[in-house]
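[Meeting: bench + compute handoff]

Bench side (C.D.) handed over the final construct sequence. Compute side (W.E.) agreed to return the predicted structure before the next meeting so the bench team could plan truncations. Sequence as handed over:
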Amino acid sequence: MWKLLVLVVAVVMLSACSVSDTTANREKEADRFMLAFPPKELIDDMVKGLSENVPPEQRDSFVAMFASSMDVKVIGKAMREAMIKDFTAPELKSLADFYISPISRSAMKKYGTYMSDIMPVIQQEMMAGMQKIMPREVAPGEGALK
């Protein structure tokens, strides 16, 4: 069993490493990624997440209005350029391979809900942290540092 695991890990690593980091390969792998996870899908997911803060009876019109006000081509172009600039070809290949997988796509569709579930805790902890590091108010005549 462990031999199979080692073999699978080796194949995955070789697959990711088999792409040399050239601009042409970055472009190719960025395009593969965008086919696997199109900008429109990203926008739709973001708008759907934003709509959770809108009263239920207004959600459909909010989604339609918001989604139609965004230029998918502009966002797609910016995404592709940033990917080519910020990621290596092997990293982009790995991301594209991940998003092509049906199980990965299923998991990522749940990511927005997951973030919505944990965001209140993150915000609460950030506020608590800020309160701990912010200097307390100083009474007149009292020094800030003691």
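W.E. noted at the follow-up: The two ends are 63 Å apart (CA to CA). C.D. will use this when planning the next construct.
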